[in-house]
Structures are given as C-alpha cells and as structure tokens.
Amino acid sequence: MTPLLALDSFKGCLTAPEAVDAAASALAGRDVCRMPLSDGGEGFAACLAGCLGGVFRTVSVHDPLGRPIDASYALLEEGRIAVIETAAASGLTLLKPEELDPLNASSIGTGELMQDAVRQGVDEIWIGLGGTAVMDCGAGLLQALSPLPDRLRILAFYDVDVPLAGPGGAPAVFGPQKGADAQGVAELERRFQRQAEAWKAAYGIDPMRLPGAGAAGGIGAALAVCLGAEMHAGIQAVLEAVRFPERVRECGLVITGEGKADRQTLTGKAPFGVLQATRRYAPGTPVVLLAGKVEDREELRAAGFDAVIQVTPEESLKNNYLDKSFARENIRRAVQDLVYLRD
Q: For residues 316 and 336, what is the distance between their CA atoms, to the nearest angstrom?
C-alpha cells in the first residue's frame, strides 16, 4: 500500500512541504507519494510554481499595518501569468498576536503586488485568497491599483466559501480569529453590510450571492464585483495542477492535514477538497485527517474522514508550545501509529 501524503501548511508553524516531510519521515523504507498542497492561502504561489514551473519576483510593499516589507509572487509561462497569494503581503502570520487589528488593517500590500504584476505585462493574475489579517473588503487593495488594462484576466481562488456578511459570514466566522471582540465583530458586520449595499447599487451585483465573497476578509467580493474576477475553489485548482485524480488511484491510503481542523475545514479547505476528490476518483481509499488542533470532531467524521487525529497533546496546546521541531515530531508519531499502515 502506497500512502499519498497530501497536507496543507500547519499555519504559523510548518509549511506544506515541511508537513509532508514530517509525515514521510515516519515511513522510511516505504514508497510514498508526496503532495504538498494549498487551498488558496499560505503556500498557494509556491505550490503552483512548483507544479507548473515558474520564478519568483520580490518587491517592496506594505504589510497590514502599513509597514514596508518585501513580499514575493510567482511568474509562470514565461511571465504571462502572475500567481499572488493574499497571505504574502496581508497575511495573519506577518503580525504578532498583540498587533492584530481587524478594524484598521489594510490589504494595500496585496494590491501593490497586483500593480507590480501589471507593470510586468502579465496577461493573467491568479490570486489565492486566504490567511489574511485584514477585514477591509479589499479597500486597501483597490486603493493601490491604477486602472487595469482591458486585456487583463483575473482569477481568484478562495480557501473557504463563506458569505460576505450575515449569519455564517466573514465577520462572524473570521473576525474573532483576526482579533475582533464581540463589539468589533458587530462593527465589522455593519461595515460589510454597508459595503454590500453600496456595491449592489453601483454595479448591480449582489455580493452576498457570490462564491468566495467572504474569503480573505472580503477581498473575494471586491475582486469579483469591482474587477470582474472569475471565482474558483482554490483547492480544486491545485488538485488539478498536481494531477491528484491520476495519482490517488495508485495509492491505498490518503493522509491529509492542516494546522487546525474544525467545521471551517468543510467550507472548502484543502483537507475537505482532498476528501471529496478521493471519494470521487478512488472511493474505497481511506482518508485520514491530521491536525495540530481538532474541534468539531464528530462533524468531521460525519463528513467522511475515516480518522481525525489531533497530533499535538492538549497540554502543549494550553502552553502554546508549537515550535517546528515539536510539530514535526508530533506528525511523525501520529503517522507511525496509524493502524492503516500496519502490515
């Protein structure tokens, strides 16, 4: 039995390739299929550049708090396509926990990356939506852009499919994760509702009905409504690029994973995309979900995962002990203990 290791990053701790390497270290002497993934968030550009071939360009932009930083994006097909991820310039990992400020953080850096790509003469911009510290409905991004050429095609790949606002919308789901208290979430909800009404009046498009509208703090809606971006589920694009349908048929077990697994996993995150694709192309193959932290376990099992494993001990989570070497060892041990791998 050849295991397929299809893991996303363990955000803020391990990149997707590092997580895959950790899982593979438990399987020394066995054939494994390595498949680092991204669903549109952290690692999206690197994943596609690695699969399709490309080079990276680094430019000076601004982080969510307006500080100058260097951020990179990928150029594919001899510079015809730019692959940008919102996490590169507007990412949650760019800020310390005490710096989180979702009511004021700006997506301007992502817009600056897009503007630089336009200056390079690209025909298409593929933008991965996810992993941001911002909740500005793309206001900073739009501010950074000059008028775009008519020929430019924009494809947006969202990591989660949540509404822009309302019950289950971006403010309620992601506001707390980005540092908003109950009062802050209520203010963000008011802002998002007002923005939705303004866009509907100006463009005749209701952003509440658009797929991926709430992704990346509302950047998804801004791209779709204001720039005419084509919206796609990020994990589906990545799975196609890495030839997942062909490769999963050759494997007897799929091990997927991410930093935190909960009900949000089921809204379009990489592990759920892996599960759905496995059930479609290799329906009898077990799919095991590893995560640094697990919540909503029963919902995850009900969705079809054969096993859901929290790799980090509870005591370590309480003490916030999550360094790279510790995370690698936890993943290695979890994979080593899997009953599916015992001959």
A: 20
